[in-house]
Amino acid sequence: MTRPVEPQPSPAPGSDLAIATRGLTKRFGARAAVDGLDLLVPRGSVYGFLGPNGSGKTTTIRMLLGLVRPSAGTSTLLGQPVPQGAQLVLPRVGSLVEGPAFHPYLSGRANLQRLDAADLTADARDSRQRIDAALDRVGLLATAGKRYRAYSLGMRQRLAIAAALLVPRELLVLDEPTNGLDPQGTREVRHLVASLASDGTTVFVSSHLLSEVEQMCTHLGVMSDGRLVAQGSSTEVRGGAAPVARILTEQPTVAARILTELGLVGVEAVPGGVRGTPDGIAPEKIVAALVESGVGVKEFTVSSPSLEDLFVSLTGEGFDVSG
Q: What are the ABC transporter domain coordinates in residue numbering (predicted)?
């Protein structure tokens, strides 16, 4: 099983963490949407923030960006406390929260021009160069003159990311950046995130597509019912999960009974056979018991669980693994 998240001291400003929270909590009436959250997001990482709908991901992001005041706890972005130091740190942070919103009858470039003009920290003298650079970074320079209403979902998401990149950013916070995208649009956003990370930008991304998270994230945090149930590097989080034995057989009912009698945990039927957690039982003992009972074993494997298996074990809920 994955180790539970242990409380850790809040880091001091100037540490190697891009995001740090301590006991971050948000209540709506008697309900705690986020409950005692201790996030540790290393600088330069791509941090995948996972959780089913209603687990508190978006509420957490809104608190981190100073859009919602927490009921309790503290948070820092790039070493600055939020919301107290929001004016100092937010110009160094780009964000996409709950989907892009632009003027439909304006072109992509015109939309970015309006946003840039409203940014008091942006230099109007190099506005055009910065806008073109941001459009080029997300692959939209050639279609910058097209009206936003004619953009595909993937193009709209990329334009929103371009808006977050109009000035240099040290931290990028993306809430479901691949939501509603087709496979091509999803790949485009994934490659963009990888490109940003390679340049040293820390990317904090919430997502419901486990296959995408597996491919692009260096660190993971898993939310369930407002609480953080696992956190660490991808290797640490996934390495803490117990291996799973899978047996392909035409006698799954008998095999399941034998595995249960041997002491395997979580024995269940799967297409073509059964699986369960050995819990220290040697593979040769499992195979021998099956064969001695007359069960024909077509294939026997022991492997680390997938990210989907890990997610289900931590939250008790299924997840979207398409991509």
A: 19-250
Structural domain span for residue 251? 244-303
Q: For residues 80 and 107, state if they share a domain.
A: yes
Q: What is the pTM of this model?
A: 0.74
* Cα 139-143-146 angle, rounded to 5 deg: 145
> Does an H or E element contain 112, and which?
helix 108-118
Flag whether pLDDT at 178 surpasses 80: no
Bigger pLDDT: 34 vs 189:
34
Say yes or no to pLDDT of 45 above 70.
Answer: yes
Taking the C-alpha atoms of residue 104 and residue 107, their distance in angstroms, rounded to an integer, is: 8
Q: Dig out the tokens for 308 from the structure.
A: 């989907």
Residues 208, 214, 218: CA angle, nearest 5 degrees:
110
The residue written with tokens 């808006």 in the block is: 163
In a domain, residue 309? The reply is: no
The DSSP secondary-structure symbol of 35 reads E
3-state DSSP call for residue 279? coil
pLDDT at 259: 93
150 part of a folded domain: yes
Contacts 24+ apart (CB under 8 A), 116-120: 116/166, 119/166, 119/167
Cα dist. 158→148, 182, 222, 278, 292 in Å? Answer: 12, 13, 26, 45, 59
CA 247/CA 252 separation, integer angstroms: 9
